Amino acid sequence: DKKEPDAKIAKTEETSDKEEEEKSTKPPAGGSKSGWKNWKKTKESDSGGEESKITYCHWLLKSEPESRLEKGVDVKFSIDDLKAQPNQTTFWDGVRNYQARNFLRAMKLGQQAFFYHSNCKEPGIVAIVKIVKEAYPDHTQFDQKDPHYDSSSRKENPKWSMVDVQFVRMTKRFIPLSEIKAHHLAHKADGGPLKNMMLFTRQRLSIQPLTQEEFDFVLSLEEEKPQ
């Protein structure tokens, strides 16, 4: 078992469902509707024009970068806290929502995720991490001193899981929620890649899947000047 870091890890999803290998070729970003259409045309051309089945192969992980006490424990965990961990790696504990837990259990070794600062003055994406250990029992569910202790969970049949994540790199710039939302609204009206992004359709989940198209488009925004 890993030693728990001094700063309590805040990668949490409360029981009440409380809110909130980089690609070698990136699609061109664009604030206009035509921007994503041109990108889609290029992508379809590269794949022979075939529509691929929707699959989730990337993730968005929410964590709180600002101090907040939960049952007397500070649940803050920012990207700087992750970078300060040994080997820049830690476990993603404290998830207490069944759908978010199931997403954790679906994660595969090597898959990449956006590290998203949540429940703060300006939420948004700050970095990329990767899954370095697939789902295993979350030890905090059995720790009575932990704010996410679950007395109904049994060691022979644990309810809650966690994965290990490792820092990959910072995004080239901070990508704020407001900017992603603007693209989501435009794509909703015009059928773009972010039209069904779970960040807006299931915004309360702290663990969210992303399609390849969603991940690529959001990642391409780091190349653009802030709106």
Give a short summary of the structure.
This is Thymocyte nuclear protein 1. Helices cover 24% and strands 25% of the residues. The chain has helices spanning 33-46, 79-83, 98-106, 177-190, 198-201, 212-220, and strands spanning 56-63, 69-70, 73-74, 89-91, 112-117, 124-137, 161-176, 207-211.
Question: How widely separated are the two ends?
Answer: 44 Å
**CATH architecture verdict:** Roll
- How does the helix and strand content classify structurally? alpha+beta
Q: Are there runs of 5+ residues with pLDDT below 50, and where?
A: 1-9, 15-35, 44-52
Cα gyration radius (Å): 18 Å
> Percent range for helical residues?
10-25%
Q: Which CATH class?
A: Alpha Beta
Beta-sheet strand percentage?
Answer: 15-25%
Number of helices: 6
* CATH-defined topology: ph1033 like fold
In total, the number of domains comes to: 1
The biggest sheet amounts to:
6 strands, mixed
Mean pLDDT: 84
Strand neighbour order, sheet with most strands: 4-7-6-5-1-8
Q: List SSEs in N-to-C order.
A: HEEEHEHEEEHHEH
Would you identify the CATH H-level superfamily?
Answer: ph1033 like domains
What general form does the structure show? globular
General description of the model:
By secondary structure, the protein is an alpha+beta fold. The protein has one domain: ph1033 like domains (ph1033 like fold, Roll), CATH 3.10.590.10. The chain is 24% helix and 25% strand. The chain is built from six helices and eight strands; from the N terminus they run αβββαβαβββααβα. Strands 4-7-6-5-1-8 form a six-stranded mixed β-sheet. Strands 2-3 form a two-stranded antiparallel sheet. It is globular, with a radius of gyration of 18 Å. The chain starts with 32 loop residues before the first helix and ends in a 7-residue tail after the last helix.
